[in-house]
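Work Package 4 report. The design task specified in the project plan requires that, given a folded chain encoded as structure tokens, an amino acid be chosen for each position. We show below one input record used in the internal validation round.
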């Protein structure tokens, strides 16, 4: 271990020892997560490599839905199923600004993505409309992406795209309504820093949001788009 480079982390752990965000026990491996709770996290496996939907068995081929209706993005990495206790961590960040949840989720995502064969040139967190940002005071996708970016050494693209429309919350809509709700929701306002991007979001449900963003990125010159998410509903 390089003590010089790790000294700030060692001091921080000594002053503020890691504490599990789920049960309150001592954290493990420098994270706010104990071994028992880590083992309870619902991994999203096996899943479709194209859209991240949970599958009954592992397959190298995309799921039937992706074969019939290919999304605008090429691959999806969704680490967990959107179930407890992952839902608790995401809600804690999204609705209560519990930033340690963002750090933990980012650490877990980065660890799982370390061996990714083809890393993107940048990470683009799904933008919030300015009105929603003022309401919450933060963008949960950006907060998670900061840790992923730092650990994987992939830059963030925070000013290339905006959410041009204040869309209705997707959680209030069914699948068909979600698709209509996201039409032309995003606008590219700056030259993309890379032709290979990873869209990062906290949860992918129907994929309508990330698909509409991917379409906008392709029109702006992107050649490959991956989707990275903490959880798949």
């Amino acid at each position: 271990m390089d003590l010089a480079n790790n000294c700030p982390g060692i001091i921080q752990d000594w002053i503020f020892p890691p504490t599990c965000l789920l049960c309150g026990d001592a954290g493990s491996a420098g994270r706010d997560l104990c071994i028992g709770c880590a083992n309870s996290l619902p991994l999203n496996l096996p899943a479709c490599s194209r859209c991240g939907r949970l599958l009954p068995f592992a397959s190298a081929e995309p799921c039937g839905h992706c074969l019939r209706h290919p999304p605008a993005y090429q691959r999806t990495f969704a680490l967990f199923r959107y179930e407890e206790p992952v839902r608790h961590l995401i809600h804690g960040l999204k609705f209560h600004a519990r930033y340690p949840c963002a750090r933990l989720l980012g650490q877990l995502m980065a660890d799982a993505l370390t061996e990714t064969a083809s890393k993107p040139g940048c990470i683009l967190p799904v933008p919030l409309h300015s009105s929603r940002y003022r309401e919450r005071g933060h963008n949960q996708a950006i907060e998670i992406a900061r840790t992923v970016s730092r650990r994987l050494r992939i830059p963030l693209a925070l000013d290339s795209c905006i959410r041009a429309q204040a869309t209705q919350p997707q959680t209030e809509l069914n699948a068909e309504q979600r698709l209509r709700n996201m039409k032309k929701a995003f606008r590219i306002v700056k030259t993309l820093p890379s032709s290979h991007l990873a869209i990062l979001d906290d949860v992918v449900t129907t994929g309508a949001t990330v698909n509409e963003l991917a379409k906008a990125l392709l029109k702006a010159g992107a050649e490959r788009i991956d989707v990275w998410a903490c959880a798949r509903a």
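The mean pLDDT is 90. Validation will be extended to a larger panel in the next phase.
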